[in-house]
């Protein structure tokens, strides 16, 4: 597993506006950390609901799993590794991963 991989994640029952159920998500945890086999991962869920056009959502070049999608950067979350399903998709591009990380910095007001 590497940063930028897109995996299926079981987010469970929805609470408020959190991501829910099983859906694709982009792994953001640094590859160097992943090599140490942590028990939690940082991910950003992906949705096919592209109508909102929120500033904190990044359109993705490939469809996940099979249609136009956006990374919901404002929903960055930590998940237990047990929440990862067997579903795997093509990773996001290096450019998209960098854009997601830039959006996170903007959301958290990190210079």
Task: Give an account of the 3D structure.
The chain is built from two helices and seven strands, in the order E-E-H-E-E-E-E-E-H. It has 111 residues and is of the alpha+beta class. Strands 1, 2, 3, 4, 5, 6 and 7 form a seven-stranded antiparallel beta sheet that branches. The radius of gyration is 13 Å and the shape is globular. The N and C termini lie far apart (28 Å). The mean pLDDT is 90.
Q: Characterize the largest beta sheet: strand count, sense, and whether it forms a barrel.
A: 7 strands, antiparallel
Number of helices: 2
What's the shape? globular
The counted number of beta strands is: 7
* Overall residue-averaged pLDDT value: 90
Low-confidence stretches: none
Task: Give me the strand/helix succession.
Answer: EEHEEEEEH
Helix content: 10-25%
Q: Which percent band covers the strand fraction? A: 25-35%
User: Assembly type of the shown chains?
Assistant: single chain
What's the Cα radius of gyration? 13 Å
Distance between the termini: 28 Å
Structural class by helix and strand composition = alpha+beta
Short description:
This protein is an alpha+beta fold.
Sequence-ordered SSE layout with sheet pairings:
Blueprint: E1 6-10, E2 22-27, H1 31-34, E3 40-47, E4 57-60, E5 69-72, E6 77-80, E7 84-89, H2 94-107
Antiparallel strand pairs: 1-2, 1-7, 2-3, 3-5, 3-6, 4-5
């Amino acid at each position: 597993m590497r940063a930028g991989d897109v995996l299926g994640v079981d987010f469970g029952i929805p609470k408020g506006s959190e991501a829910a159920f099983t859906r694709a998500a982009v792994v953001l945890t640094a590859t160097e950390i992943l090599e140490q086999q942590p028990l939690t991962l940082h991910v950003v869920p992906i949705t096919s609901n592209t109508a909102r056009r929120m500033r904190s959502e990044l359109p993705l070049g490939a469809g996940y799993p099979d249609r136009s999608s956006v990374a919901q950067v404002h929903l960055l979350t930590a998940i237990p590794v047990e929440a990862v399903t067997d579903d795997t998709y093509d990773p996001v591009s290096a450019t998209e991963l960098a854009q997601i990380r830039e959006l996170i910095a903007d959301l958290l007001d990190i210079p």
